[in-house]
Design a protein that fits this description.
The protein has about 230 residues and is mainly α. Helices cover about 65% and strands about 5% of the residues.
Length: about 230
């Protein structure tokens, strides 16, 4: 019968279907006797040719799609990558700065965020855990209100440490020192302006003011003497 591509029922090797897609029945059957090794080799060569054709077509298709998409050349890609790299670094720095600012703001206001069953975000604060907000705008508006600001101030006051109190004392003392210095400067300037203004007055007006001041001193002294006699 020659070399057949069909293995009998007594073969020890397991049955494997051919790559050509033909159904091989064990023990003969329809189309079994006419399938030989030469047919299998022909089918294999056809499949290899067909596979190469498909690979060539796919490569051509991929190239055409790349050209249609407008992908740049290697030189253009290198230049674009440099520009994109600079832009990406700037964007990364801006995003990192924004994330750090957001974290500081959330820590400052004791913010808690959680996900709802619908997938949205629920905003809460640890100072008022019974209140929940489903939008960020309403949550921020509430945090800016006087009720929460008073509660936040009391909470910060209660959370102060000894070092915080010492720093606040030093700031208050420095503030008072600066205020006293400003007052002394203003007082000195006011005195100089008064002297300059008085120096421009005529002699008669200066003598008149001196007499008025002496009379005022006499009246003040008389009141003090009367008060001492009344007490004594």
């Amino acid at each position: 019968m020659g070399k057949q591509g069909i293995r009998g029922a007594g073969s020890s090797k397991p049955y494997k279907p051919n790559r050509g897609g033909r159904v091989v029945t064990i023990g003969g059957g329809a189309g079994a006797a006419g399938y030989s090794e030469s047919d299998r080799s022909d089918d294999d060569s056809e499949e290899e040719e067909e596979g190469r054709r498909w690979s060539d077509d796919s490569e051509v298709d991929d190239g055409s799609e790349a050209e249609e998409d407008g992908h740049p050349s290697e030189a253009e890609e290198s230049e674009a990558s440099i520009d994109d790299g600079l832009a990406t670094d700037e964007e990364k720095a801006a995003k990192a700065k924004q994330r750090a600012s957001t974290k500081r703001w959330e820590a400052k206001h004791f913010v808690q965020k959680s996900k709802s069953s619908s997938g949205g975000t629920i905003y809460k604060t640890k100072l008022l855990p019974e209140m929940a907000f489903h939008t960020h705008a309403t949550f921020v508006e509430f945090l800016k209100g006087s009720q929460f600001q008073k509660l936040l101030a009391e909470c910060r006051k209660g959370m102060r440490t000894h070092n915080d109190n010492e720093q606040l004392k030093q700031k208050a003392e420095a503030r008072r020192a600066r205020a006293e210095q400003r007052r002394a400067v203003k007082k000195r300037e006011r005195r100089l302006r008064r002297k300059e203004k008085v120096a421009q007055l005529p002699e008669s007006e200066i003598e008149k003011r001196k007499d008025a001041f002496q009379a005022k001193k006499a009246r003040r002294l008389a009141r003090k003497e009367a008060a001492a006699k009344a007490l004594g």
